[in-house]
Amino acid sequence: MGLNSADLLKALCYPRVKVGNEYVTKGQTVQQVYNSVGALAKAVFEKMFLWMVIRINQQLDTKQPRQYFIGVLDIAGFEIFDFNSLEQLCINFTNEKLQQFFNHHMFVLEQEEYKKEGIEWEFIDFGMDLAACIELIEKPMGIFSILEEECMFPKATDTSFKNKLYDQHLGKSNNFQKPKPAKGKAEAHFSLVHYAGTVDYNITGWLDKNKDPLNETVVGLYQKSSLKTLALLFAAAPGEAEGGGGGGKKGGKKKGSSFQTVSALFRENLNKLMTNLRSTHPHFVRCIIPNETKTPGKNIW
């Protein structure tokens, strides 16, 4: 990466942190360094990917005016593991939103079309309205909202986050449940009833994952890297001091140094995607999984 290994090791273990108007050196635990390395790796991958997309688009772009486009979207798969964390919640939430979009077009709009054409048709409720689960996750004081609120408090813990979830939703939403202890399975803190099944979630480390801050001392090294591409990817924005390029995983700080969490940026990007999809005329290709073991010649219907 065009970096001095000793400088990188020092920056990871003893980063400079701004306290008030001064910078101090703060020693990190093994777990903090581990999290920092993960955040930095994700940031490099994301910035490199976006840089490549921009360059490809610039090369392929036409100067002619256009009104139409064709796009292909691979719908996120639903995930149910023995251990489900924040990543699974984000993936499953995306799946809920896209499935709701599919249901609306395949069932609701089609039946409305029958009415317009005068076709005799008795409206059928397919029981596929996913709004309850979607709102539980994204509404004000929903799961994401409470998570983002807890990230603002330095003394917040996994326990305080769990308690707020229970106070707000347990017994008030049918989709939010207390998990049943199961032998041989990882500990779960709450269960969500998704359209595709009930998923037990473990909230350990969600607050740190959601903040996912970049080590700004390492970012400063990236900006001075002898590898020109890496230095370009992390170049300080106009008016921004070197080494201060990221409060969060995705480039981190909004205008006015307002910290943006991973979940907040995730929702923002998902909303942009849904807005784009609603402006299109969609066609759907459904894939059928014959069995869960990927065994050839075996169908379970």
Automatic annotation (TrEMBL):
PANTHER family for the chain: MYOSIN (PTHR13140), MYOSIN-11 (PTHR13140:SF857)
Keyword match ATP-binding: yes
Residue intervals of the Myosin motor domain: 1-301
Lineage: Eukaryota, Metazoa, Chordata, Craniata, Vertebrata
Record-linked SUPFAM superfamilies: P-loop containing nucleoside triphosphate hydrolases (SSF52540)
GO biological process, one term: actin filament organization
SMART domains membership: MYSc (SM00242)
Entry keyword set: Actin-binding, ATP-binding, Coiled coil, Motor protein, Myosin, Nucleotide-binding
MF annotations from Gene Ontology: actin filament binding; ATP binding; microfilament motor activity
Stretch list, region Actin-binding: 270-292
Name assigned to this protein: Myosin motor domain-containing protein
Family membership: Belongs to the TRAFAC class myosin-kinesin ATPase superfamily. Myosin family.
InterPro entries, per the entry: Myosin_head_motor_dom-like (IPR001609), P-loop_NTPase (IPR027417)
Cellular component, GO annotation: cytoplasm; membrane; myosin complex
Superkingdom of the source species: Eukaryota
